[in-house]
Amino acid sequence: HAAECLVLQRLRGANFNDFTLALTALATRALMLRASDEEGFRQVLALCHHRGSASLQLVSDFRAAERIAQRSVPQLRDQDLVGIMLRHYSNGFARRDRTAETAMLLAPAASYFNHSCAPNACQENSKGLELRFWALEDILAGVPVYISYVDIPRKSSDALSRADGRRAMLQEHYFFHCTCMLCEGPRHGSCTRWARARLCTGEGLCSKRGFLVPQGTSRWCCLCLQMKS
Predict the structure, then answer these.
(1) Which cellular components does GO assign to this protein (predicted)?
(2) pTM (global) more than 0.90
């Protein structure tokens, strides 16, 4: 923890943005805990870092943060912080309250869920280190489980309601071209009809991720109502 605080202090002094601060802190934590959790560290290294797909500007920013971190904490010297940061960048999960993201964590097993703009599962915004996922429909044995890496909008005016908007975001942050049924389907990438049937209509209570999930045979519960700030 002391190493993280020192790194964050130095990065704030160099005016790095909050996202780079968070990723550098996570990479610092992973490397500092390597000796006590070698298996966990191996799971992190098994994730794809997409170094060849990330933009030159992104990698340059991460390298600048890496240099400051390595000068601040001797144990980080000669360590590949950029590789760990890139793994967090495209595999991390956000914690959020009703207004904004509040934290980020890396769960290697959950990182293997693939993306669909019409997912059959969703992440609950649970607290602490636990990640919970809910099925949005019956999923037969052998059928892949998909979550959405982007917010699913209700309104057709939202840029993410169109395939080109979602694909641009997915390419920038996750480095792939989406070919899900909504992006490739006959509705030319619109996801608003799909979303309206699966998102809570309580505008004042829910964020865009307010999925309705089955509770028993007939009741539906919005995950956002379970969220505690």
Answers:
(1) nucleus
(2) no
